UniProtKB/TrEMBL annotation:
Domain of life where this protein originates: Eukaryota
Gene3D superfamilies: Tetratricopeptide repeat domain
Protein name: Pentatricopeptide repeat-containing protein
A Pfam family of this chain: E_motif
UniProt record, GO biological process: RNA modification
Coiled coil: none
Each PPR repeat, start to end: 166-200, 331-365
InterPro entries referenced in this protein's UniProt entry, alphabetically: E_motif, PPR_At4g14850-like_plant, PPR_rpt, TPR-like_helical_dom_sf
Keyword Repeat: yes
Molecular function via GO: RNA binding
Keywords: Repeat
């Protein structure tokens, strides 16, 4: 009816709903035992979002159709009930049915959701004893499972034994090395990939460029940049940003600027034209568009929106956006963005409340987290109470000049001369040629009145007049 462009009205649906009410007849008459009818029932319940009813039409019956079980396993996985996937698989095995590639792939995905390496290895064993050992899709799913569960050694050994490797397989292994901070191994794998004649794509380029940036291997970076341009990948924002990061870390700021200009010129021109034509940038409109386009599922997008609201003075909107995500769904970037937002708005106690909640959630604070907290300490005057010094001592990394510098400025602001001497010694040992540190410490001493009795050597100059040299000093 719909295919004939004839659309239902209020008189059509009562008949359709009345037909649905007779579904019990299908079971009573035994038609649900037919594969075609049974699978149609499963699909109907799946589309209605009532996966709990999937077993009801066929309760107590032996189901020998593998498609039914695969649909049930997939439905449980898709609805976020990964444990149910394995319960369905257990019932399927009781029917003495062997899993196929679809079964295995969905169960491996469920293992990742459960964060269970044990479950993943159990499914791997069923693959080994079965006939799926040489199935590329299954092997790819196994490799992906090991890499996502951070079992890098298992992933490496399995990768070496794989009889067939396409671009997707190489990408999984390259990404695994890159995400686990093995840049050298990532580059070696990229070299092997090229020698095997496998063409790198977008998902190869991003982790490869990131690893090249860590190694500061500029020659390889230029080769990767050329490959990106030849294959038309430079229009991708993620690749573009990775190239800028790579050139910056290699101290090639001019090259980074050129890459930035190539991408941003069109955007800046369009933005300028919008302003000239009287169009105002509406943050709420952009937020709505990101939700409508499903772009708000990434932490980078949410963090950008959060910071934008904070910079516009809408700290409450920023907090609402932060609270929208469940506690387990927030990553370090999201927490850092909210801490930074509170710090800039002068709500310093909230920074430390969030910091404690972040630790309770199981996430490890990084350098950006501590710099945000240190900024809060500096601006709030907590230096006097010793919180800033204590915070530096608890950092999981060795403090550098970026950490000690703001603390020295805070000491000057709050007249903490004793702490200033300690901090200045740290800074001077790290940056002995930075004159700014000496000047700042000198100003702290002067403000504390510790320059009494000191006399600055006056500047002198000499001038020759009529063959005689005359000396002039300051204040003469």
């Amino acid at each position: 009816m719909v295919m004939k462009c004839m659309y239902p009205d209020e008189g059509t649906y009562p008949f359709v709903l009345n037909s649905c009410s007779r579904l019990s007849d299908v079971v009573k008459l035994g038609f649900d035992s037919y594969d075609l009818v049974g699978n149609a029932l499963v699909e109907m319940y799946r589309r209605c979002g009532d996966s709990g009813k999937l077993q009801e039409p066929v309760e107590g019956e032996a189901i020998n159709d593998l498609a039914y079980w695969n649909t049930s396993i997939f439905e449980a996985y898709q609805n976020g009930n990964a444990q149910e996937s394995f319960r369905v698989f257990k019932r399927m095995r009781m029917q003495r049915l062997e899993p196929d590639s679809v079964t295995v792939i969905n169960l491996l995905r469920s293992s990742v959701v459960l964060n269970s390496l044990k479950a993943g290895k159990f499914i791997h064993c069923s693959v080994v004893v079965g006939y799926l050992c040489e199935n590329l899709s299954v092997n790819t799913a196994l490799l992906s499972m090991y890499s996502k569960l951070s079992s890098l050694e298992d992933a490496r050994l399995f990768f070496k034994k794989m009889p067939e490797r396409d671009c997707v397989v190489w990408n999984i292994m390259i990404s695994a090395y890159s995400q686990n901070s093995y840049p050298k191994e990532t580059l070696e794998l990229l070299i092997q990939m090229r020698r095997r004649g496998v063409r790198a794509d977008l998902f190869t380029a991003i982790p490869a460029i990131s690893s090249i940036a860590e190694l500061k291997c500029l020659e390889w970076g230029k080769q990767m940049h050329a490959h990106v341009i030849r294959n038309g990948l430079d229009y991708q924002v993620s690749v573009h940003n990775s190239l800028i990061d790579m050139y910056c870390k290699s101290n090639q700021l001019e090259a980074a600027q050129k890459v930035f200009d190539l991408r941003s010129h069109g955007s800046l021109s369009l933005f300028t034209k919008m302003k000239l034509d009287g169009f105002k940038v509406d943050l709420k409109y952009l937020h709505g568009y990101s939700v409508k386009s499903s772009l708000n599922s990434t932490s980078s997008m949410n963090s950008a929106l959060l910071i934008s609201y904070a910079k516009c003075g809408c700290i409450d909107m920023a907090r609402n956006l932060f609270d929208e995500k469940e506690l387990d769904g927030k990553d370090v970037i999201t927490w850092n963005s909210m801490i930074s937002a509170y710090s800039k708005h002068g709500e310093w106690p909230e920074c430390f409340v969030l910091y404690n909640k972040m630790k309770q959630s199981g996430l490890k604070p990084d350098r950006v987290t501590f710099l945000g907290l240190l900024t809060a300490c500096v601006n709030s005057g907590l230096v006097r109470k010793g919180e800033a010094e204590e915070l530096i001592k608890t950092m999981p990394f060795k403090p550098d000049a970026q950490v000690w510098g703001p603390l020295l400025s805070a000491c000057k602001m709050h007249s903490e001369t004793g702490l200033a001497v300690f901090v200045a010694e740290k800074l001077i040992s790290m940056e002995p040629k930075n004159a700014g540190n000496y000047i700042l410490l000198s100003n702290i001493y002067a403000a504390a009145g510790k320059d009494s009795g000191l006399k600055k050597t006056p500047g002198c100059s000499w001038l020759e007049i009529n063959g005689q040299v005359h000396e002039f000093c300051v204040a003469d």
